[in-house]
Amino acid sequence: MAQSAAEKASTVERRLILDAFRNLLVAAIALAIFGWLAGRVLATGTLRFDLSIRDWIHSHASPISTEWMLRITTLGNWYVILPAAAVLFIYLKVKGSSQEARLLAVTMAGALLLDAILKLTFRRARPEPFFDLLTPKTFSFPSGHALFSLCLVGFVAGVINLRVERLWLRSMVWAGAVVLVALVGFSRVYLGVHYPSDVLAGYAAALAWMSTVGAVAHREARSKKLKGSG
């Protein structure tokens, strides 16, 4: 039996409320994880874990792996992330998806600001890089590559999934996004320019920020729906 207009509207409203609640829950969990990591880092409680993981990964390094990691890590560089985000922003505007373009701008601008504030707040010194690489001039905690890549790739995956109906295609998109973001984070530890806890904190900060933006977006969508039905 087909749903009435009122039933469909009620179903959409419930989904918006549940989505907003889910995003807030994810944000709270990610924030708690980041807070725990930050506390441990300030107390040098992660140093043993960080060094053991770094040393283990470095002991399995190879010339081919190093060549690939050097390529993969560039995907998280600001001079790759920002132009990619700008191109996506223009594409969304041209296609008439102004709401998504605005959310992308807010997401990436917030990510840049969040990374700068957190690095200056914690001022964690960088570890000694491997493979004779130069030490980055910015602070180490959290990893900007992890934060930026998760924000942008996660946003792209979300936009694609809104346009894909088949479940297996959605699963493939999310799986590809997870693998790509994980490889970027792994490359930072492999190359020795970040501690593992830096990367984990970058992911946690990105999840907290993106989930907060998502919750606000769902609230705005619900407000527009209520005004439209009023």
Please give a handful of descriptors for the protein shown.
230 residues; mainly alpha
Description:
There is one protein chain. The chain has helices at residues 5-42, 47-59, 63-73, 78-94, 98-122, 144-162, 167-190, 196-229. The protein is an all-alpha fold. The protein has one domain. Helix 1 packs antiparallel against helix 8 (196-229) and helix 4 packs antiparallel against helix 5. It is globular, with a radius of gyration of 20 Å. The relative contact order is 0.17. The model has no long low-confidence stretch (mean pLDDT 88).
Q: Radius of gyration over alpha carbons?
A: 20 Å
Total helices: the number is 8
Using the alpha-carbon principal axes, give the shape.
globular
Instruction: Give the oligomer, counting copies of the same chain as homo and different chains as hetero.
Output: single chain
Strand count, sense and barrel status of the largest sheet are: none
Report the average pLDDT across residues.
Answer: 88
Q: List how many beta strands DSSP finds.
A: 0
Task: List the domain count as a whole number.
Answer: 1
Helix content range of the residues, please?
A: over 70%
Structural class: mainly alpha
Uncertain residue ranges: none
Strand proportion, as a percent range, falls in: under 5%
Summarize the helix and strand pattern as letters. Answer: HHHHHHHH
